Structures are given as structure tokens and as C-alpha cells.
Amino acid sequence: MKKNNGYIILISLIVALGGFLMGFDASVISGVVGFIEPEFNLTKLELGWAVSSLTLTATLAMIFAGPLSDRFGRKKLLSVAAALYAVSAIASAFAPTFLLLVLARMIGGFGVGASLIIAPMYIAEIAPSKIRGTMVSFNQLNIVLGISAAFFTNYLIIKFGQSDADWAVALKFSEYNWRWMLGLETIPAVIYFVALFLVPRSPRWLIMAGKEQEALKTMARAVGPEKAALDMEAVKQSLNNEVNQAKASLADVFVKALRPVLIIGLALAALQQLTGINSVFFYAPMIFEQSGLGADASFSQAIYVGLANLVFTILAMLLIDRIGRKPLLIIGVSGIVLSMMALSYGFNKATYKLTEESISGFSTELPVENLSALINLEFTSDIEFKSALLENIDSQTLDAFQSEIFREAIQLNPMLILIAILAFVASFAVSIGPVMWVLFSELFPNRVRAVAISFVGFINSVVSFLVQLVFPWELAHLGTATTFLIYGLFALAGLIFILFKVPETKGKTLEELQLFFTKRNA
User: Fold this and answer.
1) CATH number at residue 57
2) Distance separating alpha carbons of residues 477 and 227, to the nearest angstrom
3) What is the pLDDT of residue 1?
4) Both 307 and 321 in a single domain?
5) Mean pLDDT in the chain?
6) Which residues contact 188 (CB under 8 A, 6 or more apart)?
7) How far apart, in whole angstroms, are the C-alpha atoms of residue 175 and residue 246?
8) How many domains in the chain?
């Protein structure tokens, strides 16, 4: 069995590389926004669009990914996604205009949507029930690794750009910093595309497609010949027990019998994004700049975010099949509530004041004489301070020098902000991050699983798109403290829902879960 588990682990790791690309593709933009905003003279909503455009097409892809995977197979869709990642990375790196950059990012979004839906579905369909939670969590682990890699490579590119080494100068890391950040994704995308040739087709999909011999062969490698025969009969029986043998459609997801699990899926899909996780991941340097750390420090602090995400995702993988899904959700979402409230408190207590000494140290390109009217004036919110700045300098100048100005003016507890952000990321990574996708792969019956996961994934992506789009606007108009307070209140509502509505699915086969929910909802 250990040998069989080794085979499952290898296949799951390869398939989950799609999660790495998704995490990298989504989070690499965190290092890009500070450079493209002044270069393309973007408004706050345009900046939000640069970040969220990838999620928009990912959302569209999620609608079709499940049904297309039913028709052409999980493996084939993942190969297409790998190719889209590569094309997007190259096109983004060479984009001459903001419009073409957005279009290139949107191409990658189709790959994100497909891999985000298909990878955990495939792994759930090939992994034995005893290790299924851990195996499906490989996808979340790889998303986390991708996020961490994006933060780290962004930081390295900034450092290379400051280097006088001949090779760094020749590669123009300083001049083309954000283009290098986006273009690096080509390497893992090509690796993923090639590695997928080693992956068999999903056994459950093969059974649905009438290819039982190939399915039995794959299942035998995964769980052994005897268990494979039993599992195959269980899958066939499950499919045969479906009242309507017609091809599943979106309408089938809304039938009365599935309503309770659909509500759970939709609630978790919305909650995962309404906690603000992608605001932290995709705008991490911007958030740290708001706390006065400065540009270089903000990039290095973002690496800590990636590391916390990685460590606690691994912890979730170790615990999810031991203590169960629901306990992790309760513990983690509780931590999210406390962390967001701490962030809101920390920024609410911040003050902002410029002095003669601080202004004298500003860059020579900044028109410091225009700021003399603000010397020794204390502001109690970032909104008030920005408004006062905009009365004395234009918005383009503020965008270019905001990090420097805030670093000198802000007075707050930066350690509280850092600890709260890391605690938030840790709480997310040990709970709603990986557990949501595990539950998605377990809640819905075989025949509608692909369509149902596509639908709830679509909702997850829509909410993610909106959160990313409005985050720069929220910071500019509502303020940092209010923005984090809103996320904390959403998390609190989600915690109440989890306590009373989310069931435990640990240790049951997909067929046992289907029978359980059928009886429960009868």
C-alpha cells in the first residue's frame, strides 16, 4: 500500500503544479502594481483592474471547465491550462501598453480558472479516501508555494535591479523589473505542460466515458487490484443509482435534494474571498507601505507573508485527515476574525505628521516646497492625510512618492500590523484556504460534481474579482482601518455559519458521502 501511496503522491504533486502556477500568476502582480501605476498613469480603479482582470477570465473559465472536463477529460484540460499560462507570461512581459498587459493577463486567467477547478477534482477522483484530504490539499500547498515564489522572485528582481553587477545590468533588471517579474512564469508553465504526459486520465472520468479497462488499470496502480475492483463497482453503482442518467447540466445542481450542500458550497466560496485574502496577497507591498515600511522593506515583509502561508498550509495538510475539516474551519476562521480586528485597530490608532526634518530627507524629485503647509500638522487617518497631500501635490506625484511620504509621516505600531497580517494568513492557510476545495470535491455526487464545482468555483472567483477590483478604491476612500474591519465582520458571519451548518466529511468515500447526503436531504 505504501508503494501505491507513493504513486498517488507523485501523480497528485504533478497535477497540483497547476496550483503553483495559479498562485504565482495571481500574486506576482503584487510586485508589479507599484511600477505600472506611474508608468501607465493609472487611476485606482484601473490599478484594481490590472490586478483583477486575471480573475475575471478565471471566473469565465470556471463556468466551462467542469463541463469541458466531462467531455474531453480532466488531463486534457490541464494541458491546455499549462499552455495558456506560458502564453500569458510571455505576452505580459512584452506588453507595450496597459491594454495589452490586461489582455495578456486575461489569457492567463483562463488557465487559472481551469486548473483551479480541475486539479482538485482530478486528485479527489484518484486518491483513496484515507489520504484524499491530504492529496487534494497538495493543490492548495502548491498555490501557496506559487504565492511564496512570486513574493521571493519579486524581491530578488528588485535587489538585482539595485546591483552594479555586469550580468544584472546587462539583463536590465532595473529598467524592466516588472516585466521580468511577469515573464519568469514561463519556466514553470513549460515544466507543467511536459510533466502532465506522465499523468493517467482520471479513473472516475474513464468509467463515466465507458473506458472501464483503462480505469481499472489506473485504479489498480493507485490502490491495488482487489481494492480497485471494489472501488470500480462502487463508482459504477453510484452512477447507475442516479435517477436521471442524462448529461448533467447546471439546472441539476439546483434540484431540491442538493440544495443544502449547494448552500454550504456557495457560502464557503464567498467567505473564502470576503475575508480579504487576495487583497493581502495581491497588494501585500502596498499594505506594508501604508504602515510606513518603505518600498524595499515592503517587498521583504511580503516574503514573510508567503512563508507563513506555506508553513500553515503544510500544517493543515497534516491535520485535515486527522482532526477533520470542520474543526480546522472553526479554529482558522476564528483567527481571521481576531486578526482583522487587530489590523483595523492598529491602523485606526495611526497618526500622520510631516516635520521639517522628515521633509528635508525626501528625494530631490519630490517638490518638497509644496508640502511646507503641512509641516507639524497631525492627521488621525490616512484618508485625511492623503486629502491634504492632494491639495498640495498632484495625484501622479503622490502615487510615485507615497511610500516615501508615508514612511516619514506615519506613527503606528508596525509590529502589531505585521503580526496581525501574518496571523491572518496563517489562520486562512490552516482552514478556509485548503479545506474549502477539499469540501467542494466531497460534497457533490459523481454525476454533477464537475458542474457543481464549476458553479461554486465561479461564485468564488466572482467575489475574488470584486474584492481585488475595489481594494485600491477602498483604501483611497474608506481608509485602511475601515477596509479591514469590513473583512473581519464578513469572517464573523462566516464563522457562525460554519458552526451551525457545515458537516464533517472526514474518512468517508465519495460514494458514502453521496449516500449520506441523499438520505439526509430526502
Assistant:
1) 1.20.1250.20
2) 59
3) 46
4) yes
5) 83
6) 17, 20, 21, 24, 85, 146
7) 57
8) 2
